[in-house]
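Lab notebook, entry 311. We have the chain sequence and a SMILES string for zinc ion, and the next step in the workflow is to get a structural model of the bound complex before anyone spends time on docking refinements. Request logged below.

Task: model protein plus zinc ion, output structure tokens.
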Amino acid sequence: MPHLNPVPLLLAALLSLAPTEALAQAGGSWTADIADIRRVAALIPGPRPLRLNYRRFAESRRTKNFSVKDAPPLPSVQARTAFQVVYADSYLMVDAGMDAAVHRFFGRGVDEPYDAAAATEVERAVGGARLILVTHEHGDHIAGVVHSPEADTLAPKTILTRTQVGALRTKPQMPEIQLTPDQARRYIVVDYERYLPVAPGVALVKAAGHTPGSQMVYVALASGREYLLIGDATWHMDGVRLMRGKDAPWVTEDEAAVLDQLRWLNQLGRTEPRLVILASHDEEQHADLVRDELLVPRLELPDSNPSGGQR
Ligand SMILES: [Zn+2]
Ligand SMILES: [Zn+2]
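Result returned:
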């Protein structure tokens, strides 16, 4: 704080507001409104996407009690995934995968499965994307952009939030994903209050909690089917069903905000039958959605995209 030399009244007023605002953000008051999200996602004109694809390229094996507090310590697979929102003439990626070096960080000394062929597909899909979005600034979601030999060409078509960039600049999860100021400037850096339209049918929903830069990605298909890609708000959908957070000592979360999000998602799950709430790492959920034809378990690649005509 500055010393008490003449502080303009306006500044004094702003300073007096700051603690209240900080409290509101830290005090578990997160909420969102699905009607507002739908409205925002409809703001950008153009045909809506046709389907949602995904690819699983690695896994971590962690008993379920880490993903869902007080769950029994049963074996559980955390799938590492990237998602592809497919339009008639192009596609966007939600999360970007990671290379083997960053994957090893997550093994924490244990050698965990990494599907190099699948990871290469994710890499090619990221390279051919019209636009890249990330749910949050963790290495398993973002390394495919920031720790890639193609980082300089991917950055200008990747939207990062100011908070995500701040974390990647000064507090990266691992050294491999740290951004220099020069690198950070190449991204499309945005700051928004609650929701941001980014493509026809697609909106970002601010959801700090798992990390300061966490956000959800809402997607409405042409068919009327809707998805909410919730990133790591929970690692397993039991977290939403039971409204219980993680119990993982290696992550530091705003637990109140995460709980608010889990409660809101739980409510949404009970009242919005057209909406699929989709967690990044829940292998069981992904298998169910693939079976029900709500999720396509492959990526369309730039050279082999059958619908990839010119407009
Ligand atoms: Zn994460
Ligand atoms: Zn993750």
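Notes for the group: The longest helix spans residues 9-26. Worth checking against the assay data. The first strand starts at residue 51 and ends at 61.
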